Amino acid sequence: MIAQMLRQLQLWDLGGIEQSWSVRQSVRARRLSVRVFRNGGVEIVVPPRTSPHRVSAFVSEHREWIERQRKRAVPQFDWPMPPSELSLCAISEHWRCTVVTAGGRLRTRELDDGELQLKGASADREHMRQLILRWLMRHAALRFEAPLRALAAQMGLTAGKLQIRCQRTRWGSCSRRGTISLNVCLLFQRPEVLRYLMVHELSHLRHMNHSARFWAEVARHEPQWKTLDRELQQGWRRVPSWVFKMSG
Fold first, then answer.
1. What domains sit in the chain, N to C, each tagged with a CATH number?
2. pLDDT tens column, 209-237
């Protein structure tokens, strides 16, 4: 049913929305929102049963803001690789990235002084991008595990397996088997935002929906959830442009 509705969304005439923009329906969305990615891409997120007229009006209302944000976006291929640094705000870590030419395949190496080396034979930047991204996912799995388990214990819950994913539009999820999935991009958010998202997904272990009882559970463990949720919805701005960008 949702897939059919999404296909319908793609066929809407939304009064001037560019072909490069996307419209995504989200059952979790409580209001219309817009995201402008660092590569200039635009995504309109709509709650279920939103009319095409309402979406068109929303775009018209926010078009000037959207265009200002797009002008600030990084040009399509104007991104350094490797990046000079990685500021992982969520876990209060800062890494310097360097390249060391040596024999053998390219690999990452962590040094005690906060240096992340890409050591090995030279490679194109797409190879380096993927290598750093894989390191980030391993690092997130390592650093998110203990806080997630501790928070679950505080909430009187037992979480299942932790998965780290790299998704463009979803921050996290909780399966019926109790598997918690978190987006690697949470590394670039504030610690308070990361904690809120963990509370959100863990609350689904009690309520596999977004009912009033679910939000009451979230509020019980994170009273500032509304403010943090709004910050999270804009959190894509904090994600480095190279995370989702492919080389040309």
1. 2-73 (no CATH), 85-238 (3.30.2010.10)
2. 999 999 999 999 999 999 999 999 889 88
